[in-house]
Amino acid sequence: ARFGKAYSSDLTHSLQLKHTVPSHVTFSTVIQKIPEVSLVSAFNDWAGRISDLGAHPWISADGKVLCSTVKDAHGMGQNFEAVVSLFCHRTGLVHKVKNYANKSKDEGEISLVRELVEELGKMGAVITVDALNTQKNNSADSRYWQPLCGASKA
After folding, report:
1. Considering only 17-31, 34-48, 58-72, 83-97, which range has the smallest mean pLDDT?
2. pLDDT band at 136, cuts 50/70/90?
């Protein structure tokens, strides 16, 4: 709601609105009707066009659970939707996102971060990740993991 009020003239112009900016509920309803694969793909295409990472960018990779998607939070059947994002420190923008479901056997935060690291590692990017992604069994075979500041590889 605050975003819509703060940027009402920009939104009205960009979206070519004839009347006032729709409520946050309307935006939320419309976005929820867009297939997530299409939304992620459109975001990544857009971010790729507006974001120039430059040479040797510093990138942070992190996964976040989408809170409203958690089911059976304390039980054996826990499930949730989550996203992994790549944030570029130089531009201050998210460069890419990938989504996954907790129940997926093939995809999770670790495997998605590895995919993204391999894509960016070829560019000479410096990528920071949280401890989850530095486990010995998960990172030992990657060509792109390198310790920073003299830290030793597990």
Report:
1. 58-72
2. low
In 14-136, the DSSP E strands lie at 58-65, 81-88, 93-101, 126-128
Measure CA 133 to chain center: 15
With 50 as the cut, is the pLDDT of residue 73 above it? yes
pLDDT band at 127 (very low <50, low <70, confident <90, very high): confident
* Amino acid at the residue 8: S
Q: How many CB atoms lie within 10 A of CB 102?
A: 16
Distance between CA atoms of residues 91 and 65, nearest Å? 24
The CB density around residue 26, as the number of other CB atoms within 10 Å, is 11
For residues 59 and 116, the answer to whether their CB atoms sit within 8 Å is no
- In this structure, the strands spanning 93-101 and 81-88 are antiparallel
CA–CA separation, 112 and 114 (whole Å): 5
Length of the chain: 154
> What's the CA gap between 38 and 31, in Å, rounded?
11
> Using CA of residue 8, residue 9, residue 15, residue 19, what is the dihedral sign?
positive
Say how far apart CA 64 and CA 66 lie, in whole Å.
6
pTM: 0.65
